[in-house]
Amino acid sequence: MTRREAREAALCALFALGYTPEKDAQTLLSDYEGEFDGSTDSYVREAVFGVLSTLPELDTAIAEAAVGWTMSRISRVSMAILRLACYELLHMPEIPVLVSIDEAVELSKIYDDEKAYTFVNGVLNRIKESEAVAAVARA
Fold first, then answer.
1. Residues 7, 3: Cα–Cα separation, whole Å
2. Helix axes 55-65, 76-91, angle to 10 degrees
């Protein structure tokens, strides 16, 4: 599984979370294993479990960076993409910041509204400039 495919798998599970918040990470992953070679990539597992375990932190960062937007106004696809990318920015220092942002923008172009990618890019660039991301980069 390529990293792009792994991100797509994680995105599917995180998107489903928006419709079934009662499901735990393992159930979400199990629901999508069949669609991606019947296995779960280590990145997918880490990303889904990581996003779910840090959801309040990620949502706070997104809310602060989404200037002029309420969380309820952000599409579920954009929210899943933002949560995934934000988790990478704050908790996966081995992934270069610009790679996380570029991949999120590409996922947005594929799976979301035609203008959503500019919103995703703007929010992630604001998060990139935050002190939290700077602290991860220094660590």
1. 6
2. 110
Q: What is the CATH number of the domain that holds 97?
A: 1.10.940.10
Share the mean pLDDT of the chain: 87
pLDDT in tens, 75-115: 999 999 999 999 999 999 999 999 999 999 999 999 999 89
53 is in which domain, residue-wise?
3-138
Tokens (6 digits) for 128: 């990139």
CA atoms of 108 and 76, how far apart (whole Å):
11
CA distance 88 to 14: 14
Residue identified by tokens 């220092």 is 93
* CA atoms lying within 13 Å on the CB side of residue 30: 5
The domain total for the chain is 1
Which residue carries 């994680």 as its tokens? 10
